[in-house]
Amino acid sequence: MSRPVHPTTADTIARRNFLCQAGFGLGAPALASVFARNGWAAARTDPMAPKASHHAPKARNVIFLFMAGAPSTPDLLDPKPLCRQRDGEPVPPSFTKGERFAFIKGTPRLLGSPYTFKRYGQSGAEVSELLPHFTRIVDDVAIVRSLHTTQFNHAPAQIFMNTGHQIVGRPSAGAWCTYGLGSEAENLPGFVVMTSGTSAPDGGKSLWSSGYLPTAYQGVELRTKGEPVLFLADPKGIDRSTRRATLDALSALNHQHLEAVGDPEIATRIAATELAFRMQTSVPELADLSREPQSVLDAYGVQLGERSFAKNCLMARRLVERGVRFVQLYHRGWDHHGSAAGDDLLTALPARCKETDQAAAALILDLKQRGLLDSTLVVWGGEFGRTPMNEGRGGSPFLGRDHHPRAFTMWMAGGGIKRGLTYGQTDEIGYAPVQDAVEVHDLHATMLHLLGLDHLRLTVRFSGRDFRLTDTKGKIITPLLV
Amino acid sequence: MTSIAILASWLSVALTPAAPVDFQQHVAPLLAERCLPCHGPEKRKGALRLDAKATALEGGATGPALVPGHGEDSLLIQRIKGLGDEDRMPPEGPPLTPAQIQSLTRWIDEGANWGAQEAAPAPTTADATHWAYRAVARPPVPKLPPSGVPIHGDIDRFVLARLREQGLTMSAPAPRETLLRRVSLDLTGLPPTLAEVDAFVSDKRPDAFARQVDRLLASLHFGERWARWWLDLARYADSHGYEKDRPRVMWKYRDWVIDAFNQNMSWKQFTIEQLAGDMLPSPTISQRIATGFHRNTLINQEGGVDPEEAYFEVLVDRVGTTASVWLGSTLACAQCHNHKFDPFSQKDFYTFMAFFSNNDTALRGSLFNDLHMGEPILTLPTPAQSTAREKLAQEMAEVQRHIDSDSAERRAAQRLWEQKQREAELQWQVLPPQKATSQGGAKLAVLSDGSVLASGPAPAGDTYDVVVHATLPNITALRLEVLPDKSLPKGGPGRAPDGGFLLTGFAASRGNEASTPLMFSTAAADEQIGGFGPATLLRKNVEGWAIDVAAAASSGRRQAVFVLREPMQGGGTLRVRLSHMPRALRAIGKFRLSATSGADPLFITQVPRRDRELLQVPESRRSTAQQDRLATLHRNNSSHFAPERARLRGLQKQVDELGIVTAMVLQERPGFERPSAFVRARGGFASPTEKVFANVPKSLPPLPPDAPANRLGLARWLVSDSNPLTARVTVNRFWEQLFGRGLVETSEDLGTQSPPPSHPELLDWLASEYMRLGWNTKALLRTIVLSATYQQSSRVRPDLLAKDPTNRWFARGPRFRLDAETLRDLALRSSGLLATRVGGPSVYPWQPAGVWDVPYNEESLVWKTSGGEDAHRRTLYTFLRRSAPYPLLINFDATSRETCTLKRPRTNTPLQALNILNDAVFFEAAQSMAARMQEGAGTKPAARLSYGFRLVTGRHPTSAELQTLNALFASQRERLRKDPSAVKALLTNPTVEDAKPPGVADPERAALTLVANVLLNLDEAVTKE
Questions:
Q1: Where are the alpha helices (DSSP H) in B756-864?
Q2: A344 touches chain B (CB under 8 A)
Q3: Global pTM value
Q4: Are A231 and B848 within 8 A, CB to CB?
């Protein structure tokens, strides 16, 4: 693939700007290592060119399975026998004094999980009957039962889980990772997003925004039905070499203009156009699932041609195989308040589990079998938890749980995460963590650490101060690390 | 205050022999440490200050903080105890200890002696109120020492003063070509023509630029460009949203917005007409159409939606949108609780909602109706349509009169028809089940009359399997009766809480195990809701069968008849499956199956199951009502009046085909009461508490005493000169549109969490200037674009890249990517394709196949690609379906307009490059541009290339640029000379199905097409600079 090299001042502007935006301005050793490693004269100069990490990484890629809407983890991964024993009894006021909920009113009543839990694997992890496939990977994952967040409405909580802040406008974790490390995938975006489920996640595009980082780092959303990317095919009469010739001219003109005008956004556009060219061949190849053996399709539960979480999971594996740094899948539809039929724990929750359980487990096993799990960090979870109490909005007879920021469970696997571990503990009804509480910023700090990035050093200066993904907080959860 | 509370507080004093609480020793330190950081002179959260008795008594957004003598009842004590629906105070750090709470309570009981701070303290800072809530005052213009910098007006003085502070300088003026392109895009959304560029470049008059500005402000495209922006705020779309997302007709509102900008309607009038045009004295049609602003809300047409709740969501949107658009305030945050940061209480949210709660609505049926909560729709016939409609209406009335008339002949026909109905009933044989099972765990009991009754678990989706033995030798149809039972909710016949059900599958097969499915040709029920009839069970897009259980005359009995494609011979075992998808509603509670050999099985559905008993009552013993009922059924259903009914349907079709335009509008309900609404605990629809009356938020200036407390009063209040927010919010948005960033960066929120304005004085100057000009939008925009600040070159100087990369101090002109609509408009304009007609219905330009292939899409909804000039209209006329917007819009950061879009993000992705490189719409533009280059610039290639370059950028290419273009052109022409099939492909219109290739293969035209494809993708082409 030819790439025109224009050793112009425009390149210098782009490179300097890029380096200075890449947060290495203060770290001379890091800068030197970047130069040494990449040998700038010949290296990729696009914003996604791989960059040196702060320390030796455990994980090279991240797959974040975002269960938007917030799954009811008390019914999946954090059993509370006491809630079952005391089902229907008012929750002891010591728990809820002064608390606020989105929808519960009056004295809330405990809701025992309607589902049975058993222990599985050598680790003896407790898993609900709703996740039969997850039981096959319990010894490969670390279950973290002590997450808590500050937000209790979907959009702000999703934005918080992705950007470390509840207000729109900050860079998302995927943007930070590609900003810090670039991407090995030369022919695909470094940060890819796919959605499935009942609708788009509440937080919208802000969830994969680049915030105040250069726009090159925002997530690129692949369509999950029909063509993954529209307008991939060249117009009739344009073959690859003709397209290359037109893009060489375009690139030359844009470089000339960058030199004249000096706007780094032009450099981003040049890089985006070049990536677009490469995506014209890489994306059809990426999306061609028909070459996958039937056994793999069956393992994930993929029906070719159908939009599904299973298909996205398989795509996620293919993306990390191709070096994409950060893959994020959103599956919407976990908001089970029980305020009406169709959003309750007895019908809707099992339906969501059925849509996701098999594929998530298959993804872990597939990555493992291919030797990719050790270098791929997989994270599963939603934006907050759900109450140990039944919501009963407006006297609704359907079982459901309200939003609950105080405690929820996520799981992580691969990429330097300990296997077969259950970490953290909530109180006897699952209201709040009582041991090893984990904040969202801790999760972020740990993710970055595994990727070889120091969350305190991965900063960007904006509006007069240095910002980072972990805001002013964040500690690495060392007991989770191998 | 109850007497018990007084008694209790008296007791607590009486029983505590301690000395009075010492304010200085026990209270002041506590307040200072735990309360004043948020409720002191600095922050005043919730508009509350606790640093003096007077301010505490006055209280904040939720009322007085304390009542001296009544500690327990004081809000302060309740909040620190965590009582009521709110967070415990203080929200940070540990709760106050019981001892601390007790001493505060006692201190209030004892009269809340404040020591020295009894009176309201003199403001420590000039005014502790957040800047945006202070009245707009015209700031003095900075005096600047003379310098060589051009100053066109006061805007430049404010900007220069800040630049001096930052140690920065202004940039040189932009080249004339660039400047005219910039201002043309900003004011009309279209690039200038080359003639316009040439005229401006050669115009040596000192006011040459002002003349261009005035020309652009007078262009009809001005209205289109600013409507494009406003329609984001107004969440304009051509469909209802949610799952069904059916189309709506709303374009008259879009036309209104375009016209309003073009007429330069003052912002006051613009606001009042949109929020309350219907309430103006003798409102014009146009003023009523303007109220469509708030009809742009989503409408949920899913099954199982509670119409009142759905309407509540609409009102919630209207509150949030109004506050965001005019007040730049996140009042929406106060739906569930008091605002966390800004001085808005939860009550404020609902008093504001009350303004919108008095709209004329009609609850139309219960479920499944097209529009659950019907709001008014204006029909807007042309005079010709009006005449035609009247004529058709007269004809329909005449036919109806004939049907309604009575005669001995009709009565005789009815008797005969009744007799046939009775005979038909006898042809049905009940099929008593041998076995009935539920997959969802319900208990199915077979009763003695052959019916089946469900009890026990009632999951949302259930499937019943019934095995029956049929003895009829020749079965033509099966019948499903649904029956009431007192064990069912509301008496049934369904298991949903309202007694309803939704049947989504009816299948029958013959034999025992490896059975043969029976095929049905048609089905009908004696009653159904809207389109939810049994016939839908036979097609691909199943809606399901549902009945209106709320109908007053209901007795719960209904029947559906399923006609077999081939009669089933010989009887035998039949397996019938009734399935219910786990959608909103529950399964059938009681039912019975029967079969017939009759030749016209649907005949019995002419008399609903619940009326069939009447057939057994002899005519002489029927009441008048009973007789009328049967007569009506006969008139409406029997074959006797079939020709007349067909005629009526035909006439109605003619009315529909007149294509009379409609517009959704607001219409205030007549009456003198102040509109009211209920506060909803936690914001939940189902938890109404206190009734409140229409009012503006307490922390903002009140409604004037003589203003009506209704929508009209609200609209006038929003645009009164004393409102501190509206003018600031509006001028900040104008500035953002022109400069790419607002003076307040968060143009969507000017509340206490917003970053301070970069140029607070300039913001206030612009706001006061806007008001001084009478809220004259064109005049204000003119003032801004005539400033030297606006006219600077946008080159990113190296010193600026280091010191001000985001251009917040405006040391250079704006430079940013064009928005989605402008990109396509620019391609169409540069290529000469653009159809410039202003206004009219939405259009369907080419888009890739399959975009509307979304979940739940109804087969009838298809994108019919427009031909003729509608293929090339400005992009704001493109039909916007919320669940599947035009792809260009999504790729370039427009939204699906489900809610008010206050600000679009601005991204730069590879998908965007692919869009402009390969989208057939853009390639067609490239083809057309190639033709213009050949036809409009002589014969020399260099002139042609230069001409094309100018068409998109407005300027002449540099020699290096021309050389690059020429190299591409020459090499491609050379290659294409040898490849005529590629030439033909390149010159075939990709937006037209089966388009004919050109007769003559012109390699030069093809090579120029490739050049144009490059030109449209230039960074400079897609950027305003």
A1: 760-772, 777-785, 798-803, 820-830
A2: yes
A3: 0.77
A4: yes
